[in-house]
């Protein structure tokens, strides 16, 4: 057989560099494969695929396990991340559905599973991720609502069959997502023993957001046929049953809707509902990705705008967006009350880091120099991680530092440069307890290096341990045992067990007792668990819930190889108490 020469190989390799051919082939690969593999072939491929979509690795998308383990399985992979960010790593990896990567992420994160992880996996329809998390003691959280909003029938069915309790909020979530068939199905899945009153106002709001105008009109007509005016026997429109305060909520839902006909829905609701236009409609519309366009359209229709409502609405969001300086300047120009009260805009600008805009307002004499308000701005800047704004407030505006809670804001973000600046300029003491609440190992190391662990009483040190356990932050618990161990021979069973009444989750209590080496009174803890407010509040069958708690104890003991005195007795008493 004739072996091709070097020239033949060179000629063949040139085929791949035909303009557009390699890009076409690569377009069929998962985006992470391009960033992790294709770009590493040689300099030519790295130069060819240099756009952000090829250089960004998304944890929520599948990634080759070897590449994932290389990044997240190494020592110190999460050292710079807070506990919240480590949980997000697990949640995003669960969304990808790659179990091998989920195992690596979960081990690296060093935190107990949370309901948010289950919700992320359920919304993505990743059944295997949900099963894997559940086997490790993960709560259901609002997984059913998350799956319903995403329109995932299979996931909703699996959750209900697997023991996730039925929740009326899942019905609303399906409507918010525009999945009416799933909404009806979930209503029919309601257990006979549960009779929660369906709130038409909540359902009307959900449909106004998730469905198009013809569907909204048809459903309103259908629901109105079921409403009869008391004493007259006449049909009553659902809209007429709404309280005045609920009118703007319905219109706001339509104004934030992702359906193309959102304007038509707002106009129809304006005709249907006789109500004065509320300022909260414009404020909520601003949270949409094209919020400025929607806000301008609503303003042209006479909707008022109050900057305070906008700022409060953004701050209350679970993941607040960064408001652009141009948008913030527009809001100030549109709000008639901003001339006399610019404080909401100033705090929002500080939180978003718009230093140039703050300088301009300060030069125009619009920045009040009241110490209390400057302190609020400083806290907003610290929460947002905006060190340049904090520096400017101190050096040019006249902020008098000395507020210890500023360190907590910086430590919560794991922002070591800001922590250092606050300590150096305010004279406050670096606090290990504050750093533990952030859960960033790098921040904990820095705090300890600045004497944050010196002079801690045993009670304060135990509080730090309890805080870490309350957050389910096993990594911080282990850090504390390495760097700030409790005095030799210290043991307080009552103190550890009493922490359960402070809201510490049971798995966190077990980890706390394990690392401290404190034996538990299994029967006493089990009795406390069964009498806890959590047990009294449960809407799902208590036996199913506490059976899962027993499973959690079993998983924890198997995963840790724990010989913790009292854990076995606790599981036995719980099993007996729920039978």
From TrEMBL:
One of its GO terms (biological process) is ceramide biosynthetic process. One of its GO terms (molecular function) is phospholipase activity. GO terms for cellular component: cell periphery; endoplasmic reticulum; membrane. PANTHER family: SPHINGOMYELIN PHOSPHODIESTERASE 2, SPHINGOMYELIN PHOSPHODIESTERASE RELATED. This is Ankyrin repeat domain-containing protein. It comes from Pleodorina starrii.
